[in-house]
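User: Hey, my collaborator sent me this sequence without any context and asked if I could get a structure. I don't really work with proteins. Can you help?
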Amino acid sequence: MAIFSIQIGAYLEEDDDLNQPTFKFRDQGSSQSGAIQEIHFSAKKIILTFRDSDLFLEKYKTVELLLDQPVNRKMVDFFANHLFLASFISWRNNSL
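Assistant: No problem. I've predicted the 3D structure and written it out in structure-token form, which is a compact way to encode the shape of the chain:
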């Protein structure tokens, strides 16, 4: 199992780049800030899609987070309101 994390910092500046979350794979050296294109929620999976011009770790278009429980409103709320990524969220079947 690989370790993937998302870190957010809040800045007073209205610079969107500064307020983007940092996505990390394993350690600080394997991370990048922002560049998210879409966050797709399905039954037990969250798919992060990165912009073509700024792939994750210069290699990956998507990162799949496989969950051991179904996606629920609390998870979506976390991405939307705590990570400030509401404009990137999509899901199927309106099951949330």
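In plain terms: The beta strands are 4-7, 22-25, 27-33, 36-42, 45-50, 62-66, 89-91. You can pass these tokens on to your collaborator as they are.
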